[in-house]
Amino acid sequence: MTDDGVLSRTKCALGEGPLWHPERQTLFWFDILGHRLFEHDGTAERSWPLDRAASAAGWVDRDRLLIATETDLCLFDLATGKADSLVPLEADNPGTRSNDGRADPYGGFWIGTMGHAGEAGAGAIYRYHGGELRVLYPGISIPNATCFSPDGQFAFFTDLPTGVIQRVALDAEGWPKGTPFPWLDLSGEGLNPDGAVIDAQGNLWSAQWGAGRVACYDPEGRFLRALDLPTPQTTCPAFGGAELSRLFVTSAAEGRPAEDRLAGCTFTLEPGLRGQAEHRVIL
Fold first, then answer.
1. Spatial contact of 124 and 142, defined as CB atoms under 8 Å apart
2. What is the tens place of the pLDDT at every residue in 223-273?
């Protein structure tokens, strides 16, 4: 780990899906467009080539991840690099791929899909639980900000072009109940809410695409502070480290000029508080 806030200088065309694995004590993330999965232990980095776009993961056990790809949810064996498909994910629609996703406090996994060019309404948000993949919200353009309150009562998500992060209550099995309502409207500020994570105190940390920052909002949606990054296309944050006191942030190099040498790198920040441990996917 470097002293300038850069964890990995590997330039991802579209870095996404950071996941701190609590048993391995390592960070995973993806380059969606580069078709690659990365792992970093704070000192050394390794990676696996993938045969299709993949974007997000949840941990199942020490050596297996549930990975969302452009065609399915699969069980990925980190020891062998073998991927076993569990359930199709818009496999019959070549125009879409997976995007933002995260495991929920009930052992389920939320995953969004989108058009390859972000076509309006081409995607959806799903939940995988108990072997079932169910559509939660259709007609989504760019799903993001999937995260959950520490008490497990609420889920958050956004359709990025709207600039609005939604909140919805969850039932005893983690399925949404009632209608999502606008929890944080950033449209008036011209901010683009990309990936998000919630810390142990219930504050939401939003990576804001194009703004080069991760902004923190309290449980009522009030702005607290922002941490700046040295490249504008910040994509997703994740808490990790031994004490869950580090904030890792992925970024994207696609469309950035060559002078932006840190575009697509993965960063590590010290926000001064702790995150939640990432939830386990129960198969």
1. no
2. 999 999 999 999 999 999 999 999 999 999 999 999 999 999 999 999 999
pLDDT confidence of 3, banded at 50, 70, 90? low
pTM: 0.97
- Looking at the DSSP bridge assignments, the partners of residue 159 are 143
Encode 252-279: b = buried (16+ Cβ within 10 Å), e = exposed: bbbebeeebebbbbbbbbebeeebbebb
Which residues contact residue 231 at a Cβ distance below 8 angstroms, ignoring those fewer than 6 apart? Answer: 212, 251, 256, 260, 262, 263, 264, 265
Strand order, beta sheet including 164-170: 143-148, 154-159, 164-170, 176-185
Condensed to tens digits (0 to 9), the pLDDT of residues 119-154 reads 999 999 999 999 999 999 999 999 999 999 999 999
Catalytic residue IDs:
194
Q: What is the C-alpha separation between 21 and 65, in angstroms, rounded?
A: 9
Other CB atoms within 10 A of residue 155 CB? 27
Contact 270, 247 (CB under 8 A): yes
Q: What does residue 281 show for φ and ψ, rounded to 5 degrees?
A: -85, 125
In whole angstroms, give the CA distance from residue 29 to residue 100. Answer: 12
In the structure encoding, which two tokens stand for residue 161, read together?
Answer: 């072009």
